[in-house]
Design brief:
Layout: E1 4-7, H1 11-24, E2 27-33, H2 40-44, E3 47-52, H3 60-70, E4 74-76, H4 86-94, E5 98-99, H5 104-111, H6 113-122, E6 131-132, H7 141-144, E7 175-179, E8 189-191, H8 194-212, E9 217-221, E10 227-235, E11 241-253, E12 256-262, H9 269-285, E13 290-299, E14 302-309, H10 316-323, H11 327-335, E15 350-357, E16 368-369, E17 372-374, E18 380-383, E19 390-391, E20 398-406, H12 409-422, E21 424-426, H13 432-440, H14 442-445, H15 453-457, H16 467-483, E22 503-506, E23 511-514, E24 521-524, E25 528-533, E26 536-545, E27 548-551, E28 554-556, E29 573-575, E30 580-585, E31 592-593, E32 598-604, E33 607-612, E34 617-622, E35 629-630, E36 635-641
Parallel strand pairs: 1-2, 1-4, 2-3, 4-5
Antiparallel strand pairs: 6-9, 7-8, 7-9, 10-11, 10-13, 11-12, 12-15, 13-14, 15-20, 16-19, 17-21, 18-20, 22-23, 24-25, 25-26, 26-27, 27-28, 29-36, 30-32, 30-35, 31-34, 32-33, 34-36
Helix pairs in contact: 4-5, 12-13
Length: 644
């Protein structure tokens, strides 16, 4: 029996596992990097062990030592990091600890997507054709060699030679380059034509190597407008395998899921039977034990195996709510050798989950301090942060998962939409507006989703402040100034015996021009403003921080009356859009560049971000080198616009 569990992870998944442990009376141990010393998951555990540098969560020996030091008798890997690393599972077992996960052999079998597709084809699970890419292949595949056939049953012909890439061998573009050793969108690139193939392969390799320690990639056809559907499986050591329905995970950005729901609005009972049968065959083929997920692409009547995640999935809460189970509890009981209890549970209702990310409208990750984190309403919130938490550049920018449950899909969507509308996350730019607009969109409400949903619909990810919000901010700031005054606090800000000019409050985002005692204002305090227009009364909650004010979740940045001289940048300066490290510089000073040409590549939160020339010209200066750490706004290079 497990008495003390070490969770070899961080953030929301560590907190999620600790919650179940508390309910079961299992003692908990956290591990943390120096970057996470003050993270919520550290304080929530009964014991915590420091690992060291930020990526020490990948240090197998350090984590096993932490388990031994803390007296833990079991290890749960969470998701990401070492969760699908067979060597880690072996090390845990060899240390005499209980491994809360599938057998190492099953992890190894699915650890390479190339090998996994071979095994699944042999087990009768439908797969897409794919081609393994030799590590020796460079950025000019037509000259450097062939994309060799991976050899899996059903694979297509090799790509390369003097043909136009895959199209010349019977395939058609677009193609998808994928990392063999991991997922989460890392090491994945869309290839629209033969001229893009080499660069995509090289970039995917680097990102996969950084994220998973393995740069092996492969190529497969890209099914456009397909759905990403996955099946939750749970198996015990006594031969029982449950398939707990499907999850719809089609809405993605950068090949990472953004919205998930259970069940899928597009899956018929007959299609569900096919998906569940294929998932069970996949689990049985590798002797699977524990919780896992089998992912498929679905288009019309075609289903094709994508991969098997040999771990708990990020979006597992929607399955828990619909099937009335605690998957972490079942993981622990299966690891203790118990059989699955009774008959497979039946589904009821509908659940929808959104992933709240710290990112801007261009999906670029953000870092900094979460000044306020507040999500209210009849929803479940699995969060890795709380008010005051720091979001670093070292890890995935997901702040929380917000999940709703309803008797119907419409009810679940309504609850989640309302919760997002009222959520307040201050200090960092988030994708809250985008998530809310997805849920409000007609296409989503009709269940018309696919993996290209966001590219097709181009929903707004940012909203400017309304006139009412801008006025509320101006009144709250004025009220705060009066409350801090040392004399005549009762006078309104800007008061004069004879009114002649309105007050003006200027923000970076908007401007308010108003009378010091404007009509329709019921009350105006530093932290709450109540206004009434045409019989409609609105209350605005205000929060003040250094250099910025929030009205609800809308940020406004007051402009100083006497601004300091702004730092000027030379025309054509390429600025870092986020903090990160310089992964590669692709040009030299004096080089001619074309519009859209990649000048350098930054790495932040284990993702590559290309910095391209905004116009044709000549590189007049390169300010950084490979390995440089840069802050947001730093000048990286300067392009003198004009003919080269």
């Amino acid at each position: 029996m497990i008495t003390r569990l070490l969770v070899a992870n961080r953030g929301e998944i560590a907190r999620r596992i600790f919650r179940t442990c508390r309910e079961l009376g299992v003692e908990t141990v956290a591990v943390y990097s120096d970057a996470d010393a003050d993270a919520p998951h550290v304080s929530e555990a009964g014991l915590a062990v420091r690992l060291g540098e930020p990526m020490a969560y990948l240090d197998i020996e350090a984590i096993v030592r932490a388990a031994e030091l803390s007296g833990a008798d079991a290890v749960h890997p969470g998701y990401g990091f070492l969760s699908e690393n067979a060597a880690f599972a072996v090390a845990v077992v060899e240390a005499g600890l209980t491994w809360v996960g599938p057998p190492p052999g099953a992890i190894a079998a699915m650890g390479s997507k190339i090998e996994a597709k071979r095994l699944m084809a042999e087990a009768g699970v439908p797969v897409l054709p794919s081609l393994a890419v030799p590590a020796s292949l460079g950025e000019t595949p037509a000259r450097d060699g062939l994309l060799q056939d991976g050899g899996a049953p059903g694979d297509g012909p090799p790509v390369g030679g003097e043909t136009e890439g895959a199209a010349g061998a019977g395939w058609s573009y677009p193609l998808l380059v994928k990392a063999s050793a991991g997922g989460g969108g890392r090491g994945m690139r869309v290839v629209d034509g033969p001229s893009d193939l080499g660069r995509a392969l090289a970039s995917a390799r680097r990102e996969a190597e950084s994220a998973f320690g393995d740069g092996t990639v492969f190529v497969e056809p890209l099914l456009e407008r397909a759905r990403h559907i996955e099946v939750q499986i749970l198996a015990d050591a006594h031969g029982t395998v449950w398939a707990l329905g499907e999850r719809e995970c089609s809405i993605q950005r950068r090949h990472q899921k953004v919205v998930e729901e259970c069940p899928s609005p597009a899956v018929t009972p007959a299609l569900r039977d096919r998906l569940e049968a294929a998932a069970v065959r996949a689990a049985q083929a590798i002797g699977y034990v524990g919780a896992g997920t089998v992912e498929f692409l679905v288009k019309d009547d075609t289903i094709a195996f994508l991969e098997m995640n040999t771990r708990l999935q990020v979006e597992h809460p929607v399955t828990e709510l619909v099937y009335g189970v605690d998957l972490v509890e079942l993981q622990l009981r299966v690891a203790e050798g118990e059989p699955l209890p009774g008959d497979r549970p039946s589904p009821s209702g509908h659940a929808v989950e959104v992933r709240l990310y710290a990112e801007d409208a261009a999906y670029l990750p953000q870092s900094g301090t979460v000044d306020l984190f507040e999500v209210k309403g009849p929803v479940r919130v699995d969060s890795g942060v709380e008010s005051g938490s720091t979001v670093s550049t070292h890890y995935d920018p997901m702040l929380a998962k917000i999940i709703s449950f309803g008797r119907s899909r419409g009810e679940a969507i309504r609850k989640l939409t309302t919760a997002l509308e009222g959520a307040r996350v201050h200090g960092l730019t988030t994708n809250r507006v985008l998530l809310r607009n997805i849920l409000r969109s007609r296409a989503f409400r009709e269940g018309d989703t696919h993996t290209g949903f966001l590219d097709e619909h181009r929903l707004a990810a940012h909203e400017p402040p309304t006139e009412a919000q801008t006025l509320a901010a101006a009144l709250a700031i004025a009220a705060r100034h009066r409350s801090e005054a040392t004399v005549q606090r009762s006078l309104p800000c800007g008061w004069r015996n004879v009114r002649s000019q309105p007050q003006i409050a200027r923000f970076e985002e908007a401007e308010a021009v108003y009378d010091p005692a404007p009509r329709g204002v019921v009350s105006a305090g530093p932290y709450r403003v109540v206004m009434e227009t045409d019989g409609l009364r609105q209350t605005f909650e205000i929060a003040h921080y250094e250099g910025r004010v929030y009205v609800g979740d809308t940020r406004l940045t007051p402009l100083p009356r006497l601004p300091e001289p702004a730092e000027e940048h030379a025309p054509g300066s390429l600025l870092a859009p986020m903090p990160g490290s310089v992964l590669r510089v692709e040009v030299e000073q004096g080089a001619a560049v074309s519009k859209g040409q990649v000048v350098l590549v930054l790495e932040a939160m284990k993702m590559e971000h290309q910095i391209a020339a905004p116009a044709a010209g000549v590189v007049s200066a390169v300010m950084v080198e490979k390995g440089y750490q840069v802050e947001a706004g730093a000048v990286l290079a300067i392009i003198e616009e004009g003919e080269a």
